[in-house]
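Slide 14.
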Amino acid sequence: MRLFGALLVIAGCGALGLAGVARLDGRVRDLGELAAGLDVLQRELGWRLAPLPQALAAAAKAAHGPAAQFFAQSAQRVEQSDGQAFQQVWRDSLSAAPLRLTEEDQALLDRLGLVLGRYDGDSQRVALEDAAASLRSLQGEASDDRRRLGRVYGVLGMTAGLFLAILLI
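Slide 15: predicted structure.
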């Protein structure tokens, strides 16, 4: 019975370490998908001069996972807003989407919401270019963190599990 309990403790701690790795992987994927969606949004707003809800819907189709959900919610909320400022719609969609972002990532996207829908096409295009480039830079940093910290989380989870199992036995 003790051996079975020790194995469960090891497995649980190992799973916690793997969950940390999955969170790092998710952030890398989400940042990449958001950057791809912003590229589509930039083309739609800057070159095609599409209305904002249509541009957001196109970005939702181009992105995958939580980023697609974010763009789709934004498009839906813009169409349904009753005079609500786009910045608030963008912020609400950002907080409602299950994106795995840091506060820095969210602040970058939040600042973008100030520009979208308020200025001319060129200003929005420049802001979207800058935001997409910043997201790609953050994605590179997140990828480095994933490589560096991913092993640490996995090893730390297993080591903590072994340590606790030894204490329990």
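Speaker note: The chain is about 85% helix and 0% strand.
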